[in-house]
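Bumping with the actual sequence this time:
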Amino acid sequence: MKIDHSKRNYTMITFLMMVSCVVLFSSSNSNIENNDNPDKNSIQHGIVFYKDGRFAAWPANHGIWIWDNEILVGFVEAEHQDKTGHTYNQSTAYDHYARSKDGGLTWTIENAYEKGQTGWRYNNQLPDDKARAPIDLTQSIDFKHPDLALTFLRTTNNIGPSHFYYSYNRGNIWMGPFKLPNLDTPGIATRTDYIADGKNELMAFFTVGKSNKREGRILCARTTDGGKTWEKVSWVGPEPEGFDIMSSSVRLSSSKILTVIRSRKGNGQDLLTSYVSEDNGKTWEQVKDPAPDTGRGGSPPALVKLKDGRLALGYIHRSAYGSRVNVRFSSNEGRNWSDEIILRCEDGATTDVGYPRMIQRPDGKLVIIYYWNNARQEGAKPYRYIASTIFDPDNWK
C-alpha cells in the first residue's frame, strides 16, 4: 500500500498546532475576565464591539491611533446575513469608530457620519441626501499636530477612487472628505498607511489598481504641502501576478523604511512579503517574507516599531479548521523574523475574521484589534464582532 507522507505530515502538523492552541488558550483564559489587575504574563482577549444580529469587521480598512492611553480604531457595522463569505447585508453597512480611554480595556462606539465622515463608499452606504462629494484640500494639514488622526478610504475595491479625512481633536470631529488624485494610475483604492516626516511632509503607501484594473500593487507617494498635492515616488516591487495590497510601513532611520504587504501569488498562495528602502522610498529591495503562509484568504499586516527597537508584526492565519491570531518579532529591522507566536486560537473562528490593527501603549504592552467570531463552536452564535488582544512583547525577548 502506498502511503501519502505529505498528507500524514500535514495531519501531524495540524494536530500539533491544535494541541499548542489548547495549551495556550487554557493558560491565558483565566485572566480574561480580570482586566483590572491583569497578570504581567497573561494574554488578555476582550470585546471591543459585539451585538446580536449585527456584523462588525475590517479594522485594517480604516486605521488605529493612540494618544497616551486613548485609542481610536475604525470598523464597519451592518446587519448580519446568513450566507457564505462575509456574512453581512452590504446595503446596511456604515463606518464606525471604537474609542478607549484606558488602554483598550473598555470601549465606546461612535458613528463616523455624526463625527463628520460624510463621504459615500461601498461599505458606508449613505443615502444621496446625506452623502457629500469629496472636495479639493485648500488648507495644509499639520501632520505633526499632537492630536492628529488621518485616514484614507476607498469607494470601490479595485480602482477606487479614494478620499481622505483628518482630525485635530483625536477623531471627535473629522474634516473632509477630500479628493485623493489618481496620480496617473488605473485608480487608487487604498487604506491608511502613512509616515509623517514633517509639519507638512508625509509619505503614504497607497494600494493601486494594476494595469488590468484589478487589485492591486503598492505605490509610495509623498506630499510636501500638507496634502494639497501629491507626487509619485516609486512602485514597491514589480506588478504582481496575484496582488500586493494593504501595506503596513515604519521608518527605521532618516533614509530607511520597511513595508510589509499582504500578498497573493498567481497560484493563490497567501502570504506576507516585505521590502526595504535605503534611500527614503526611491528604490526598494525585497527581503525575507515575514509570514510565508497566512492561510485561506490571507491577512493584512499590522507592523509596529517597538520602544526597544524591535519590530512586532501582527496578522491572522485564516483556516477552515479554526483561524488564529499571531505575532512575530524581528530584532534586525525585518531581515529575519521569529517563529510564529500564537496569541489566540481554537475558539471556533471561521475564515471570516482578521484585518488587524496594532499599537503599543505607554506601558509597553501591545493592543491588537481585529474582527472575530466563534461560529464553529457548537451552539455558538454566528455574529462577527470586533475583538482585542493585549499582551506584553517583553515576554518574547
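The C-alpha cells above came from a reply further down the thread. Residues 1-19, 22-38 have pLDDT under 50 and may be disordered.
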